[in-house]
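Practice problem: predict the structure.
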Amino acid sequence: MSLTVNVAILSYNRAAFLAEAVDSLLLQTQAPGRIFIFDNGSDESVAEALKPRIEAGRVRVEDAQGMPPSIPFWLGEAPGRSDELSFAVARLRGEIDQRLASAESQAAERLQPVIDWLAGTPGIPREAAQQIVEYLSRARAALGALPTQRRLIMERFFDESGGTQLVIHSPYGSRINRAWGLALRKRFCRTFNFELQAFGRLRLGAG
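Answer:
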């Protein structure tokens, strides 16, 4: 029986490794059917990193044009985040938030003590710690703080298609966020008399 395997690669400011990753997948004994690369908000260009493969017709790149993200159907039925994991994630974000707040700026050299602490305390690889701290420092710079169980953050913006987006940054997981999002959607619809779309991460959008 023939088996087709699709592969998803998540990337954030790691375009230099994408070409090697794609080539490695294509050289496998069982080559994947499709390779999806998800990159959002990086400073680096995925299209530029994969340019030789695009020109050769092996890779296609398509801009999402501001379309809101959705959870793949094969993950939609996965168990939601537990209370224990929600608490642990919120506690880690809160600790990093405090350490970032004590820094005078968000320059790379100022993040090094936070990276050293994160790499040493939980025992995660240094490269992973660096990515986490850089990601959260940029989120903190954009939002003013990081969401925890005691502090939720609302972000409103207009996407590239002109739609209004309201994101409620919450660490509680899909079981609570999904129910809360549906409740908020119904309240907004009744109050303002227009339809909204609600997503699992408490992202509400209006056309």
